[in-house]
User: Fold this.
Amino acid sequence: MMIRIGKRLAVATAVASALALALTGCGRAGTDSGNGDANKAAASPGITDTSIKLGGSFPLSGPLSRNGQTQLAATKAYIDAANKSGGVKMGDGKTRKIDFVYYDDAYDPARLVTNFRRLVDQDQVFGTFGMFGTASNLAAMPIANDLKVPQVYLGTGAAAFSEDRSANPYTLGWWPTYQTEAATFGKHLVSLNKPLKVAFLAQNDDQGDAYLQGLKDAIKGSQVTLVKEARYAPTDTVYDSQVSSLAATHADALFSGVNVPSAQTAVLEKLGQLQWYPITYLPIVSGSRSVVTDAKAGDYLPELYSGAFTKDPCDAQFEQDPDVVAYKEAMKASDPSVDVCFINTIFGWAMADSMIKTLEQTKSPTRAAFMDTIKGMTGTDIDLILDDLTFDGSDLTSPPVANVVVRHFENGDWVKFTVGGQ
Assistant:
């Protein structure tokens, strides 16, 4: 889930845009008719009266192979369970089995673009979902929208996939934006209603910029002030100098926007060594209990917070939750070796549930109708999404899962604190 954008993103996006233009004349495999009437249009490629073909590209090798493999395992487990029960009954009354096709992109934007074209041109999928990585999905976005093929429920918090859906109507993110996540923490600081100084640490890229902007927007005009920010390069493995410079400010709070779990543990350990104990916030992707317990940070950071929008299958409070029970049973039957507590495993299941529930409401077998269906989905409950958070596809400036819950670390585990949001 680590995202390095910067120059790589600019190059990937430029190459993909040029590729999309070059391929325009090669035929638009399966684009929907342009008459605007989805109910009367002929069925799109990848769907018959008895089946629907969906696709995806995942980093099954490379630096994020664990993320890709676990997400794929959960996605396949969900689809296998759906097919075993007969398939998905869509809004047109027909029940279809799901044919899921996928390829490895090794977290390389160029490979994801190649895989996307293969899925569309050769495999003739109806649509794709669950692909993650900001640079990779941005590289595929112009092609998806040129060919009018759904590229939805993406594993990235970049606002580019949700802030202007009218510009890219066939692309849609899924989870809360990085701005929202940081803004939620900023709002929590503001709610303490006292003068507070906050320090900021993040990677020197677009993701770090998004975190910083969200924090600044939330604390603007309040008693909370940003006193210092420190950045690190994606090639850096040690952040001791940055943490030390922030500690020298004696700030009351720290947003540690470090997304590599092992690196986040090292940051927390450094806080203990420096005897600096600020109110500390960790991003969702590096806020696992093991990150905290490995650093023994619960012993010296009484005000330690992170965020969440999904249920934790290994948290005792969800032990009897119907979503969690069904998820665990399906994963055990499909592949008992997969870590059901790992965040991408949870994401894979919930993304697949989002896809199937959208299909259940799609009343015409076309890609256009599918995308229109998302816009009409409000208040939809998604498996493993926290009960007080819902899926809302009607806001064309926001991802469908838009809010974040703040969690406080207590007695060796995370405890829900409050619901944030924009």
About this structure: The first helix runs from residue 6 to 23. The two ends are 23 Å apart (CA to CA). The longest strand covers residues 95-104.
